[in-house]
Automatic annotation (TrEMBL), chain A:
Membrane topology qualifier: Peripheral membrane protein
Protein name, per record: Petrobactin import ATP-binding protein YclP
CDD domains: ABC_Iron-Siderophores_B12_Hemin
Family indicated by similarity: Belongs to the ABC transporter superfamily.
Gene of this entry: yclP
UniProtKB/TrEMBL annotation, chain B:
Record-given protein name: Enterobactin ABC transporter permease
Pfam families, per the entry: FecCD
Membrane-topology annotation of the record: Multi-pass membrane protein
Compartment(s) of residence: Cell membrane
Keyword check for Transmembrane helix: yes
Protein family (similarity comment): Belongs to the binding-protein-dependent transport system permease family. FecCD subfamily.
Amino acid sequence: MIEIAGVSLALGGSRILDNVSLTVPKGGVTALVGPNGAGKSSLLSLIARLRPLQSGRITVDGLPVDTTPSRQLARIMAILRQDPGVASRLRVAELVGFGRFPHIRGRLTAKDREIIAASLEQFDLSDLALRFIDTLSGGQRQRALVAMTFCQGTDYILLDEPLNNLDMFHARNLMRTLRRIADEHGKTVLIVLHDINHAASYADRIVAMKDGTVIASGETGDIIRPDILESIFGFSMRVENIAGRLTVLHHA
Amino acid sequence: MTEVVMQRGLVRHEGRLAMMAAVAVLVGVAFMTIGLRGDLAFVLELRAVRLAAMVLVGVAVAVSTVVFQTVCANRIITPSIMGLDALYVFCQTALVFALSGFGFAGIDPRLHFLGNFTAMTSLALALFLPMLRRRFDLTLMLLTGVVLGVLFRSLTTLLARLLDPNDFAVLQGTVFASFNAVEPDLLLFAGVITVAGVAIAWRARHVLDVLALGTDTAIGLGVAWRGTAAGLLVVVAALVSASTALVGPMAFLGLLVVSLTERIVGTNRHAILLPAAALTAIIVLVGGQTVLQHALGGEGSLGIVVEFVGGIVFLAILFAGGRR
Ligand SMILES: Nc1ncnc2c1ncn2[C@@H]1O[C@H](COP(=O)(O)OP(=O)(O)OP(=O)(O)O)[C@@H](O)[C@H]1O
Ligand SMILES: [Mg+2]
Protein backbone atom coordinates (compact mmCIF):
# COMPACT_ATOMS: atom_id res chain seq x y z
CA MET A 1 0.00 0.00 0.00
CA ILE A 2 1.21 3.51 -0.78
CA GLU A 3 -0.09 6.07 1.68
CA ILE A 4 0.21 9.77 1.02
CA ALA A 5 -0.99 12.13 3.73
CA GLY A 6 -1.06 15.92 3.61
CA VAL A 7 1.77 16.27 1.09
CA SER A 8 2.52 19.77 -0.18
CA LEU A 9 5.37 20.89 -2.40
CA ALA A 10 6.55 24.40 -3.25
CA LEU A 11 9.23 25.02 -5.87
CA GLY A 12 10.64 28.39 -6.81
CA GLY A 13 7.95 30.15 -4.78
CA SER A 14 4.98 28.50 -6.48
CA ARG A 15 2.79 25.79 -5.02
CA ILE A 16 3.14 22.60 -7.05
CA LEU A 17 1.26 20.20 -4.77
CA ASP A 18 -1.38 21.35 -2.31
CA ASN A 19 -2.16 19.07 0.62
CA VAL A 20 -2.40 15.84 -1.38
CA SER A 21 -3.73 12.79 0.46
CA LEU A 22 -4.16 9.50 -1.34
CA THR A 23 -4.06 5.78 -0.72
CA VAL A 24 -3.00 3.35 -3.41
CA PRO A 25 -3.98 -0.15 -2.27
CA LYS A 26 -1.58 -3.06 -2.63
CA GLY A 27 -1.95 -5.07 -5.83
CA GLY A 28 -3.48 -3.85 -9.08
CA VAL A 29 -2.95 -1.10 -11.60
CA THR A 30 -3.68 2.50 -10.66
CA ALA A 31 -3.60 5.11 -13.41
CA LEU A 32 -2.67 8.71 -12.59
CA VAL A 33 -4.20 11.10 -15.10
CA GLY A 34 -4.58 14.85 -15.48
CA PRO A 35 -3.60 17.80 -17.64
CA ASN A 36 -0.02 18.95 -18.22
CA GLY A 37 1.44 20.62 -15.16
CA ALA A 38 -1.09 19.02 -12.79
CA GLY A 39 1.71 17.74 -10.58
CA LYS A 40 1.69 14.03 -11.51
CA SER A 41 5.44 13.75 -12.04
CA SER A 42 6.12 15.80 -8.93
CA LEU A 43 3.98 13.47 -6.83
CA LEU A 44 5.69 10.41 -8.31
CA SER A 45 9.16 11.77 -7.61
CA LEU A 46 8.19 12.44 -3.99
CA ILE A 47 6.89 8.88 -3.58
CA ALA A 48 10.11 7.56 -5.14
CA ARG A 49 12.22 9.83 -2.81
CA LEU A 50 13.88 11.48 -5.84
CA ARG A 51 12.91 14.78 -4.25
CA PRO A 52 13.01 15.56 -0.52
CA LEU A 53 9.62 15.64 1.18
CA GLN A 54 8.80 19.19 2.32
CA SER A 55 5.66 18.47 4.31
CA GLY A 56 3.31 15.57 4.90
CA ARG A 57 4.06 11.88 5.01
CA ILE A 58 4.50 9.12 2.43
CA THR A 59 4.88 5.44 3.19
CA VAL A 60 5.34 2.53 0.81
CA ASP A 61 4.50 -0.84 2.30
CA GLY A 62 4.61 0.89 5.67
CA LEU A 63 8.12 2.29 5.14
CA PRO A 64 8.41 6.09 5.35
CA VAL A 65 10.19 7.14 2.16
CA ASP A 66 12.11 9.99 3.77
CA THR A 67 13.79 7.95 6.49
CA THR A 68 14.05 4.41 5.14
CA PRO A 69 17.50 3.59 3.69
CA SER A 70 17.48 4.16 -0.05
CA ARG A 71 18.68 0.66 -0.80
CA GLN A 72 15.90 -0.98 1.20
CA LEU A 73 13.35 1.06 -0.75
CA ALA A 74 15.01 0.13 -4.04
CA ARG A 75 14.26 -3.52 -3.33
CA ILE A 76 10.53 -2.91 -3.05
CA MET A 77 9.95 0.04 -5.37
CA ALA A 78 11.19 0.88 -8.87
CA ILE A 79 10.63 4.16 -10.68
CA LEU A 80 10.80 5.11 -14.33
CA ARG A 81 10.91 8.87 -14.72
CA GLN A 82 9.31 10.81 -17.55
CA ASP A 83 12.51 11.61 -19.51
CA PRO A 84 15.44 9.90 -17.94
CA GLY A 85 18.55 10.66 -19.97
CA VAL A 86 21.11 7.90 -20.08
CA ALA A 87 24.44 9.58 -19.52
CA SER A 88 26.74 6.59 -19.89
CA ARG A 89 27.71 4.89 -23.09
CA LEU A 90 26.12 1.53 -22.38
CA ARG A 91 24.77 -1.46 -24.22
CA VAL A 92 21.09 -2.31 -23.82
CA ALA A 93 21.82 -5.50 -21.85
CA GLU A 94 24.15 -3.59 -19.50
CA LEU A 95 21.52 -0.91 -18.86
CA VAL A 96 18.82 -3.48 -18.17
CA GLY A 97 21.26 -5.33 -15.91
CA PHE A 98 21.57 -2.25 -13.67
CA GLY A 99 18.03 -3.07 -12.52
CA ARG A 100 19.59 -5.87 -10.45
CA PHE A 101 21.92 -3.47 -8.62
CA PRO A 102 19.80 -3.04 -5.45
CA HIS A 103 19.89 -6.79 -4.93
CA ILE A 104 23.53 -7.54 -5.61
CA ARG A 105 25.71 -4.40 -5.78
CA GLY A 106 28.26 -6.03 -8.07
CA ARG A 107 28.57 -9.41 -9.66
CA LEU A 108 25.52 -10.83 -11.40
CA THR A 109 24.49 -14.34 -10.41
CA ALA A 110 23.02 -16.90 -12.80
CA LYS A 111 19.57 -16.02 -11.51
CA ASP A 112 20.15 -12.31 -12.21
CA ARG A 113 21.22 -13.16 -15.74
CA GLU A 114 18.03 -15.15 -16.22
CA ILE A 115 15.93 -12.21 -15.02
CA ILE A 116 17.80 -9.85 -17.35
CA ALA A 117 17.31 -12.17 -20.32
CA ALA A 118 13.60 -12.51 -19.49
CA SER A 119 13.18 -8.71 -19.28
CA LEU A 120 14.91 -8.27 -22.63
CA GLU A 121 12.68 -10.93 -24.15
CA GLN A 122 9.55 -9.43 -22.57
CA PHE A 123 10.10 -6.06 -24.24
CA ASP A 124 11.26 -7.41 -27.56
CA LEU A 125 14.85 -6.27 -27.00
CA SER A 126 16.75 -9.52 -27.44
CA ASP A 127 17.95 -8.53 -30.90
CA LEU A 128 19.03 -5.11 -29.65
CA ALA A 129 20.75 -6.39 -26.51
CA LEU A 130 24.25 -5.52 -27.70
CA ARG A 131 23.44 -2.16 -29.25
CA PHE A 132 24.61 1.03 -27.56
CA ILE A 133 21.74 3.01 -26.03
CA ASP A 134 22.67 6.17 -27.93
CA THR A 135 22.16 4.34 -31.24
CA LEU A 136 18.53 3.36 -30.51
CA SER A 137 15.33 4.98 -31.71
CA GLY A 138 13.23 6.85 -29.14
CA GLY A 139 10.78 4.01 -28.66
CA GLN A 140 13.50 1.38 -28.48
CA ARG A 141 15.28 3.39 -25.80
CA GLN A 142 12.02 3.77 -23.88
CA ARG A 143 11.53 0.00 -23.98
CA ALA A 144 15.06 -0.54 -22.68
CA LEU A 145 14.31 1.78 -19.75
CA VAL A 146 11.03 0.01 -19.03
CA ALA A 147 12.86 -3.34 -19.14
CA MET A 148 15.42 -2.04 -16.63
CA THR A 149 12.61 -0.97 -14.29
CA PHE A 150 11.03 -4.43 -14.56
CA CYS A 151 14.36 -6.09 -14.02
CA GLN A 152 14.48 -4.52 -10.57
CA GLY A 153 11.80 -7.08 -9.68
CA THR A 154 10.04 -4.91 -7.08
CA ASP A 155 6.54 -5.23 -5.66
CA TYR A 156 5.83 -1.57 -6.37
CA ILE A 157 6.40 -0.13 -9.83
CA LEU A 158 6.01 3.59 -10.58
CA LEU A 159 5.95 4.54 -14.25
CA ASP A 160 5.78 8.12 -15.49
CA GLU A 161 4.32 8.11 -19.00
CA PRO A 162 6.01 4.86 -20.05
CA LEU A 163 4.02 4.81 -23.29
CA ASN A 164 5.92 7.83 -24.61
CA ASN A 165 7.36 7.07 -28.05
CA LEU A 166 5.98 3.52 -28.10
CA ASP A 167 4.19 2.27 -31.20
CA MET A 168 0.72 0.70 -30.84
CA PHE A 169 2.09 -2.83 -30.67
CA HIS A 170 4.57 -2.11 -27.91
CA ALA A 171 2.19 0.17 -26.00
CA ARG A 172 -0.37 -2.62 -25.90
CA ASN A 173 2.32 -5.13 -25.00
CA LEU A 174 3.44 -2.99 -22.05
CA MET A 175 -0.10 -2.45 -20.75
CA ARG A 176 -0.89 -6.16 -21.02
CA THR A 177 2.34 -7.03 -19.25
CA LEU A 178 1.46 -4.65 -16.41
CA ARG A 179 -2.00 -6.18 -16.17
CA ARG A 180 -0.50 -9.67 -16.06
CA ILE A 181 2.09 -8.98 -13.33
CA ALA A 182 -0.58 -7.27 -11.26
CA ASP A 183 -2.95 -10.22 -11.63
CA GLU A 184 -0.48 -13.07 -11.41
CA HIS A 185 2.15 -11.69 -9.04
CA GLY A 186 0.13 -9.21 -7.01
CA LYS A 187 2.35 -6.27 -8.05
CA THR A 188 1.26 -2.71 -7.39
CA VAL A 189 1.57 -0.51 -10.46
CA LEU A 190 1.15 3.27 -10.35
CA ILE A 191 1.30 4.60 -13.88
CA VAL A 192 0.94 8.10 -15.31
CA LEU A 193 -1.04 7.96 -18.55
CA HIS A 194 -2.25 10.57 -21.00
CA ASP A 195 -4.17 8.13 -23.19
CA ILE A 196 -7.41 7.87 -21.24
CA ASN A 197 -8.47 4.79 -23.18
CA HIS A 198 -5.42 2.85 -22.01
CA ALA A 199 -6.40 3.82 -18.47
CA ALA A 200 -10.01 2.81 -19.13
CA SER A 201 -8.99 -0.59 -20.53
CA TYR A 202 -6.25 -1.67 -18.18
CA ALA A 203 -6.46 0.19 -14.87
CA ASP A 204 -8.35 -1.00 -11.80
CA ARG A 205 -8.45 2.49 -10.39
CA ILE A 206 -7.94 5.99 -11.69
CA VAL A 207 -6.63 8.98 -9.77
CA ALA A 208 -7.11 12.36 -11.44
CA MET A 209 -5.00 15.37 -10.56
CA LYS A 210 -5.41 19.00 -11.48
CA ASP A 211 -3.60 22.13 -10.26
CA GLY A 212 -1.65 20.26 -7.61
CA THR A 213 -4.60 18.49 -6.00
CA VAL A 214 -6.39 15.18 -6.41
CA ILE A 215 -9.77 16.05 -7.86
CA ALA A 216 -11.17 12.56 -8.41
CA SER A 217 -10.22 9.03 -7.53
CA GLY A 218 -12.05 5.73 -7.65
CA GLU A 219 -12.78 2.56 -9.59
CA THR A 220 -12.16 2.96 -13.30
CA GLY A 221 -15.87 2.69 -14.13
CA ASP A 222 -16.68 5.51 -11.72
CA ILE A 223 -14.15 7.91 -13.24
CA ILE A 224 -14.68 7.19 -16.93
CA ARG A 225 -17.87 9.26 -17.08
CA PRO A 226 -18.47 12.32 -19.24
CA ASP A 227 -19.12 14.73 -16.35
CA ILE A 228 -16.05 13.70 -14.38
CA LEU A 229 -13.80 13.67 -17.44
CA GLU A 230 -15.00 17.15 -18.33
CA SER A 231 -14.20 18.43 -14.86
CA ILE A 232 -10.67 17.00 -15.18
CA PHE A 233 -9.78 17.97 -18.73
CA GLY A 234 -12.04 20.94 -19.37
CA PHE A 235 -14.00 19.80 -22.41
CA SER A 236 -16.90 17.47 -22.96
CA MET A 237 -16.39 14.06 -24.53
CA ARG A 238 -18.60 11.06 -25.22
CA VAL A 239 -18.08 7.75 -23.44
CA GLU A 240 -19.27 4.63 -25.29
CA ASN A 241 -19.29 0.98 -24.41
CA ILE A 242 -17.67 -0.70 -27.40
CA ALA A 243 -17.34 -4.48 -27.35
CA GLY A 244 -17.54 -4.50 -23.58
CA ARG A 245 -14.88 -1.81 -23.08
CA LEU A 246 -15.46 1.74 -21.96
CA THR A 247 -14.17 3.97 -24.73
CA VAL A 248 -13.73 7.72 -24.56
CA LEU A 249 -14.25 9.56 -27.84
CA HIS A 250 -11.96 12.47 -27.08
CA HIS A 251 -10.60 13.15 -30.57
CA ALA A 252 -13.70 14.67 -32.02
CA MET B 1 24.41 -15.41 -27.26
CA THR B 2 24.30 -12.03 -25.57
CA GLU B 3 26.15 -13.57 -22.67
CA VAL B 4 28.98 -14.81 -24.87
CA VAL B 5 29.48 -11.49 -26.63
CA MET B 6 29.38 -9.47 -23.40
CA GLN B 7 31.87 -11.87 -21.91
CA ARG B 8 34.10 -11.40 -24.92
CA GLY B 9 33.82 -7.63 -24.47
CA LEU B 10 35.00 -7.98 -20.89
CA VAL B 11 37.90 -10.18 -21.95
CA ARG B 12 38.89 -7.58 -24.53
CA HIS B 13 38.90 -4.82 -21.90
CA GLU B 14 40.94 -6.98 -19.58
CA GLY B 15 43.37 -7.75 -22.40
CA ARG B 16 43.89 -4.04 -22.98
CA LEU B 17 44.43 -3.58 -19.28
CA ALA B 18 47.10 -6.27 -19.22
CA MET B 19 48.81 -4.67 -22.21
CA MET B 20 48.82 -1.28 -20.51
CA ALA B 21 50.27 -2.83 -17.38
CA ALA B 22 53.05 -4.38 -19.47
CA VAL B 23 53.80 -1.02 -21.11
CA ALA B 24 53.87 0.66 -17.71
CA VAL B 25 56.36 -1.89 -16.41
CA LEU B 26 58.53 -1.45 -19.52
CA VAL B 27 58.52 2.32 -19.17
CA GLY B 28 59.42 1.94 -15.49
CA VAL B 29 62.33 -0.34 -16.32
CA ALA B 30 63.51 2.07 -19.02
CA PHE B 31 63.34 4.96 -16.56
CA MET B 32 65.40 3.05 -14.01
CA THR B 33 68.07 1.68 -16.35
CA ILE B 34 68.73 4.02 -19.30
CA GLY B 35 72.03 5.87 -19.10
CA LEU B 36 73.19 4.56 -15.74
CA ARG B 37 76.52 6.13 -14.82
CA GLY B 38 78.61 6.85 -11.76
CA ASP B 39 77.68 5.67 -8.27
CA LEU B 40 75.12 2.97 -9.13
CA ALA B 41 73.53 2.63 -5.70
CA PHE B 42 73.10 6.37 -5.37
CA VAL B 43 71.63 6.87 -8.84
CA LEU B 44 69.31 3.91 -8.51
CA GLU B 45 68.01 5.12 -5.17
CA LEU B 46 67.44 8.60 -6.53
CA ARG B 47 65.57 7.19 -9.50
CA ALA B 48 63.54 4.79 -7.35
CA VAL B 49 62.29 7.69 -5.23
CA ARG B 50 61.30 9.64 -8.34
CA LEU B 51 59.62 6.59 -9.84
CA ALA B 52 57.65 5.96 -6.66
CA ALA B 53 56.55 9.59 -6.59
CA MET B 54 55.43 9.45 -10.21
CA VAL B 55 53.48 6.24 -9.63
CA LEU B 56 51.79 7.71 -6.55
CA VAL B 57 50.93 11.00 -8.21
CA GLY B 58 49.79 9.29 -11.41
CA VAL B 59 47.45 6.95 -9.57
CA ALA B 60 46.11 9.71 -7.30
CA VAL B 61 45.47 12.12 -10.15
CA ALA B 62 43.90 9.50 -12.43
CA VAL B 63 41.59 8.00 -9.81
CA SER B 64 40.56 11.37 -8.40
CA THR B 65 39.74 12.70 -11.87
CA VAL B 66 37.67 9.66 -12.87
CA VAL B 67 35.70 9.76 -9.61
CA PHE B 68 35.23 13.54 -9.77
CA GLN B 69 34.00 13.42 -13.36
CA THR B 70 31.54 10.64 -12.57
CA VAL B 71 30.11 12.36 -9.50
CA CYS B 72 29.78 15.64 -11.40
CA ALA B 73 28.40 13.85 -14.49
CA ASN B 74 30.85 15.77 -16.65
CA ARG B 75 33.69 14.31 -18.68
CA ILE B 76 35.59 17.54 -19.32
CA ILE B 77 35.99 18.69 -15.76
CA THR B 78 39.00 18.32 -13.46
CA PRO B 79 39.13 18.45 -9.67
CA SER B 80 41.23 21.61 -9.98
CA ILE B 81 37.92 23.42 -10.52
CA MET B 82 37.45 23.19 -6.75
CA GLY B 83 40.28 25.70 -6.37
CA LEU B 84 42.55 23.39 -4.38
CA ASP B 85 45.64 23.98 -6.48
CA ALA B 86 44.98 27.72 -6.57
CA LEU B 87 44.95 27.58 -2.78
CA TYR B 88 48.20 25.61 -2.83
CA VAL B 89 49.95 28.16 -5.05
CA PHE B 90 48.60 30.97 -2.89
CA CYS B 91 49.90 29.30 0.28
CA GLN B 92 53.39 28.90 -1.22
CA THR B 93 53.37 32.52 -2.37
CA ALA B 94 52.28 33.73 1.05
CA LEU B 95 54.98 31.61 2.70
CA VAL B 96 57.71 32.91 0.40
CA PHE B 97 56.40 36.43 1.00
CA ALA B 98 56.42 36.04 4.77
CA LEU B 99 59.64 34.05 5.17
CA SER B 100 61.59 35.15 2.08
CA GLY B 101 62.96 32.58 -0.38
CA PHE B 102 65.68 31.58 2.04
CA GLY B 103 63.34 30.99 4.97
CA PHE B 104 60.92 29.13 2.67
CA ALA B 105 63.64 26.72 1.60
CA GLY B 106 64.39 26.08 5.27
CA ILE B 107 60.90 24.86 6.23
CA ASP B 108 60.83 21.27 7.47
CA PRO B 109 59.48 19.34 4.47
CA ARG B 110 57.25 17.15 6.63
CA LEU B 111 55.69 20.16 8.30
CA HIS B 112 55.34 21.83 4.92
CA PHE B 113 53.61 18.79 3.44
CA LEU B 114 51.20 18.40 6.33
CA GLY B 115 50.43 22.12 6.36
CA ASN B 116 49.63 22.13 2.64
CA PHE B 117 47.62 18.92 2.88
CA THR B 118 45.59 20.24 5.81
CA ALA B 119 44.93 23.59 4.13
CA MET B 120 43.62 21.93 0.96
CA THR B 121 41.49 19.28 2.63
CA SER B 122 40.02 21.90 4.99
CA LEU B 123 38.96 24.01 2.03
CA ALA B 124 37.37 20.95 0.40
CA LEU B 125 35.51 19.99 3.57
CA ALA B 126 34.30 23.56 3.99
CA LEU B 127 32.93 23.31 0.44
CA PHE B 128 31.25 19.89 0.75
CA LEU B 129 30.01 19.58 4.29
CA PRO B 130 27.37 22.34 4.27
CA MET B 131 25.87 20.56 1.26
CA LEU B 132 25.33 17.43 3.34
CA ARG B 133 22.95 19.11 5.69
CA ARG B 134 20.91 21.05 3.20
CA ARG B 135 20.01 20.08 -0.34
CA PHE B 136 23.13 19.00 -2.15
CA ASP B 137 23.63 21.39 -4.98
CA LEU B 138 26.72 20.33 -6.91
CA THR B 139 26.61 23.25 -9.30
CA LEU B 140 26.59 25.72 -6.44
CA MET B 141 29.52 23.94 -4.83
CA LEU B 142 31.52 23.96 -8.07
CA LEU B 143 30.73 27.61 -8.62
CA THR B 144 31.92 28.45 -5.11
CA GLY B 145 35.12 26.52 -5.87
CA VAL B 146 35.65 28.47 -9.10
CA VAL B 147 35.12 31.80 -7.35
CA LEU B 148 37.49 30.87 -4.53
CA GLY B 149 40.03 29.75 -7.14
CA VAL B 150 39.85 33.12 -8.85
CA LEU B 151 40.20 34.85 -5.48
CA PHE B 152 43.30 32.84 -4.56
CA ARG B 153 44.83 33.46 -7.98
CA SER B 154 44.30 37.23 -7.72
CA LEU B 155 45.79 37.27 -4.24
CA THR B 156 48.72 35.23 -5.55
CA THR B 157 49.31 37.71 -8.36
CA LEU B 158 49.15 40.59 -5.92
CA LEU B 159 51.66 39.04 -3.53
CA ALA B 160 53.93 37.85 -6.34
CA ARG B 161 54.28 41.44 -7.54
CA LEU B 162 55.67 42.40 -4.17
CA LEU B 163 58.33 39.66 -4.17
CA ASP B 164 61.92 40.42 -5.02
CA PRO B 165 63.29 38.56 -8.08
CA ASN B 166 65.22 35.95 -6.06
CA ASP B 167 62.19 35.02 -3.98
CA PHE B 168 60.10 34.96 -7.12
CA ALA B 169 62.47 32.43 -8.68
CA VAL B 170 62.14 30.23 -5.58
CA LEU B 171 58.36 30.45 -5.87
CA GLN B 172 58.40 29.51 -9.58
CA GLY B 173 60.21 26.32 -8.60
CA THR B 174 57.23 25.22 -6.51
CA VAL B 175 54.17 26.16 -8.55
CA PHE B 176 54.81 23.72 -11.39
CA ALA B 177 54.85 20.05 -10.54
CA SER B 178 58.33 18.60 -10.49
CA PHE B 179 59.67 15.20 -9.54
CA ASN B 180 63.29 16.28 -9.31
CA ALA B 181 63.29 17.09 -5.62
CA VAL B 182 60.92 14.70 -3.89
CA GLU B 183 61.57 14.09 -0.18
CA PRO B 184 61.66 10.31 0.45
CA ASP B 185 60.05 10.89 3.89
CA LEU B 186 56.98 12.39 2.30
CA LEU B 187 56.43 9.43 0.00
CA LEU B 188 55.20 7.45 2.98
CA PHE B 189 52.66 10.12 4.03
CA ALA B 190 51.40 10.61 0.50
CA GLY B 191 51.46 6.85 -0.09
CA VAL B 192 49.23 6.05 2.87
CA ILE B 193 46.66 8.68 1.87
CA THR B 194 46.73 7.59 -1.77
CA VAL B 195 46.38 3.88 -1.00
CA ALA B 196 43.46 4.57 1.34
CA GLY B 197 41.72 6.85 -1.18
CA VAL B 198 42.22 4.44 -4.06
CA ALA B 199 40.95 1.53 -1.96
CA ILE B 200 37.73 3.43 -1.20
CA ALA B 201 37.28 4.36 -4.87
CA TRP B 202 37.86 0.75 -5.92
CA ARG B 203 35.32 -0.56 -3.44
CA ALA B 204 32.85 1.97 -4.82
CA ARG B 205 33.44 0.95 -8.46
CA HIS B 206 29.95 -0.54 -8.94
CA VAL B 207 28.32 2.39 -7.18
CA LEU B 208 30.26 4.71 -9.51
CA ASP B 209 28.82 2.84 -12.50
CA VAL B 210 25.34 3.52 -11.12
CA LEU B 211 26.09 7.18 -10.32
CA ALA B 212 27.11 7.59 -13.96
CA LEU B 213 23.51 6.80 -14.98
CA GLY B 214 22.37 10.13 -13.51
CA THR B 215 21.21 11.29 -10.08
CA ASP B 216 17.57 10.18 -10.28
CA THR B 217 18.30 6.77 -11.75
CA ALA B 218 20.99 6.21 -9.12
CA ILE B 219 18.59 7.08 -6.29
CA GLY B 220 15.94 4.85 -7.84
CA LEU B 221 18.47 2.01 -7.75
CA GLY B 222 19.07 2.56 -4.07
CA VAL B 223 22.16 4.77 -3.92
CA ALA B 224 22.01 7.27 -1.05
CA TRP B 225 23.11 10.00 -3.39
CA ARG B 226 23.97 12.88 -1.09
CA GLY B 227 26.08 10.90 1.35
CA THR B 228 27.74 8.89 -1.40
CA ALA B 229 28.59 11.91 -3.54
CA ALA B 230 29.91 13.91 -0.58
CA GLY B 231 31.99 10.97 0.63
CA LEU B 232 33.50 10.41 -2.79
CA LEU B 233 34.29 14.12 -3.16
CA VAL B 234 36.16 14.02 0.14
CA VAL B 235 38.19 11.11 -1.23
CA VAL B 236 38.89 13.12 -4.39
CA ALA B 237 40.02 16.11 -2.30
CA ALA B 238 42.32 13.93 -0.17
CA LEU B 239 43.93 12.39 -3.28
CA VAL B 240 44.39 15.75 -5.00
CA SER B 241 45.76 17.34 -1.84
CA ALA B 242 48.24 14.52 -1.22
CA SER B 243 49.61 14.60 -4.75
CA THR B 244 49.71 18.40 -4.92
CA ALA B 245 51.43 18.68 -1.55
CA LEU B 246 53.97 16.08 -2.71
CA VAL B 247 55.01 17.48 -6.10
CA GLY B 248 52.89 20.51 -6.96
CA PRO B 249 49.74 21.12 -9.02
CA MET B 250 48.95 19.09 -12.14
CA ALA B 251 45.67 20.55 -13.35
CA PHE B 252 45.54 19.04 -16.82
CA LEU B 253 47.18 15.68 -16.21
CA GLY B 254 43.93 14.08 -15.06
CA LEU B 255 41.98 15.39 -18.04
CA LEU B 256 44.65 14.25 -20.47
CA VAL B 257 44.86 10.82 -18.89
CA VAL B 258 41.14 10.12 -18.56
CA SER B 259 40.25 11.17 -22.10
CA LEU B 260 43.13 9.08 -23.48
CA THR B 261 42.03 6.12 -21.37
CA GLU B 262 38.41 6.28 -22.48
CA ARG B 263 39.59 6.12 -26.07
CA ILE B 264 41.87 3.18 -25.36
CA VAL B 265 39.51 0.96 -23.34
CA GLY B 266 36.19 2.11 -24.82
CA THR B 267 34.10 1.44 -21.71
CA ASN B 268 32.66 3.47 -18.86
CA ARG B 269 32.81 0.57 -16.42
CA HIS B 270 34.82 1.76 -13.44
CA ALA B 271 36.24 -1.70 -12.76
CA ILE B 272 38.17 -1.20 -16.02
CA LEU B 273 38.33 2.59 -16.19
CA LEU B 274 39.94 3.17 -12.77
CA PRO B 275 42.94 0.85 -13.21
CA ALA B 276 43.30 1.79 -16.88
CA ALA B 277 43.41 5.51 -16.08
CA ALA B 278 45.95 4.89 -13.33
CA LEU B 279 48.16 2.91 -15.75
CA THR B 280 47.86 5.60 -18.43
CA ALA B 281 48.91 8.23 -15.91
CA ILE B 282 51.94 6.19 -14.89
CA ILE B 283 52.91 5.67 -18.53
CA VAL B 284 52.52 9.38 -19.35
CA LEU B 285 54.45 10.57 -16.30
CA VAL B 286 57.24 8.01 -16.27
CA GLY B 287 57.52 8.00 -20.06
CA GLY B 288 57.53 11.81 -20.13
CA GLN B 289 60.17 12.03 -17.45
CA THR B 290 62.36 9.44 -19.22
CA VAL B 291 62.20 11.38 -22.46
CA LEU B 292 62.78 14.67 -20.68
CA GLN B 293 65.76 13.31 -18.80
CA HIS B 294 67.53 11.46 -21.60
CA ALA B 295 66.33 12.60 -25.01
CA LEU B 296 66.04 16.27 -24.13
CA GLY B 297 68.93 16.01 -21.68
CA GLY B 298 67.56 18.74 -19.45
CA GLU B 299 66.41 19.02 -15.90
CA GLY B 300 63.22 20.65 -17.20
CA SER B 301 59.97 20.42 -15.26
CA LEU B 302 57.68 17.60 -16.32
CA GLY B 303 54.79 19.58 -14.86
CA ILE B 304 55.17 22.28 -17.48
CA VAL B 305 55.23 19.72 -20.30
CA VAL B 306 52.17 17.91 -18.96
CA GLU B 307 50.24 21.17 -18.55
CA PHE B 308 51.15 22.14 -22.11
CA VAL B 309 50.17 18.83 -23.71
CA GLY B 310 47.12 18.55 -21.41
CA GLY B 311 45.93 22.01 -22.44
CA ILE B 312 46.15 21.08 -26.11
CA VAL B 313 44.26 17.82 -25.51
CA PHE B 314 41.58 19.73 -23.60
CA LEU B 315 41.04 22.06 -26.56
CA ALA B 316 41.00 19.08 -28.92
CA ILE B 317 38.27 17.41 -26.84
CA LEU B 318 36.22 20.60 -26.83
CA PHE B 319 36.47 20.96 -30.60
CA ALA B 320 35.84 17.26 -31.26
CA GLY B 321 32.86 17.37 -28.87
CA GLY B 322 31.52 20.45 -30.64
CA ARG B 323 31.53 18.72 -33.99
CA ARG B 324 29.75 15.61 -32.75
N1 LIG C 1 11.88 22.72 -10.60
C1 LIG C 1 10.71 23.37 -10.74
N2 LIG C 1 10.61 24.67 -10.38
C2 LIG C 1 9.43 25.34 -10.52
N3 LIG C 1 8.32 24.77 -10.99
C3 LIG C 1 8.36 23.49 -11.36
C4 LIG C 1 9.55 22.72 -11.25
N4 LIG C 1 9.29 21.47 -11.70
C5 LIG C 1 7.99 21.46 -12.06
N5 LIG C 1 7.44 22.67 -11.86
C6 LIG C 1 6.03 23.03 -12.13
O1 LIG C 1 5.23 22.16 -11.34
C7 LIG C 1 4.04 21.88 -12.02
C8 LIG C 1 3.82 20.39 -12.01
O2 LIG C 1 4.81 19.76 -12.79
P1 LIG C 1 4.78 18.20 -13.09
O3 LIG C 1 5.97 17.86 -13.87
O4 LIG C 1 4.56 17.50 -11.81
O5 LIG C 1 3.46 18.07 -13.99
P2 LIG C 1 2.85 16.81 -14.70
O6 LIG C 1 1.49 16.63 -14.14
O7 LIG C 1 3.75 15.67 -14.63
O8 LIG C 1 2.71 17.32 -16.19
P3 LIG C 1 2.98 16.58 -17.59
O9 LIG C 1 1.70 15.91 -17.95
O10 LIG C 1 3.24 17.70 -18.55
O11 LIG C 1 4.11 15.67 -17.45
C9 LIG C 1 4.17 22.49 -13.41
O12 LIG C 1 3.40 23.67 -13.44
C10 LIG C 1 5.63 22.79 -13.55
O13 LIG C 1 5.81 23.93 -14.34
MG1 LIG D 1 4.90 14.63 -15.96
